[in-house]
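Shipment paperwork, digital attachment
Item: protein structure file
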Amino acid sequence: MKHFYFIVFLLIPMRIFSWDLEKEKNGITVHTRVVEGSELKEFRGKTKLKAALSTVISLMEDNPNYVTWLKNCKQAEAVKVLNTKEKYIYIQNGAPWPVNDRDFVIHTIFSQDKNTGAVTYTIRPIANIVAEKDGIVRGTLKGFWKFVPVGDEVEVTYQLLSEPGGRVPTSIANFVVVDIPYETLRKMKEKVTESKYINSPKHPDLILPDPK
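Attachment content:
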């Protein structure tokens, strides 16, 4: 009996923090999960891109153009480039009335697995880089982008936990954690077909997979 209760005890945290499928459409899946102490759920969006890894990375490095595909993004710029693998990026997101716009300052770190070729952009909040602005609520972002080359495709994972600051109505909060990853990945599928990214010079630290 003690053994039974011990197993139940172990399973309870797993059930609370497990991923729930919220949407599956157009080759995109979105899962969410509750994170203790967080107002918003964490989301994880996945899809596959018919593109070369170098094309996808060129898109990721074009920070100002995030406004054309990153859902709700109104402004994006690298405010400080530390080196070829690390940046501080400022992002401002629009929000539906009556919620104020949010902004975020993130530290992104580029890394690549030499064996699989998988590229990860780790995202974490950074303070005291950009002053807060009147009428815009400062939030934080923590998560990652992961791009795994498989044949002529790239498998994408976009996982993020946002602390938006201030108060966000529950109805809006529950909607955005599904809408943001889905619409972002949907637009990303379109953007990687643009010649400006297909023909861009590759990232200096990117190791391209051997052609099969």
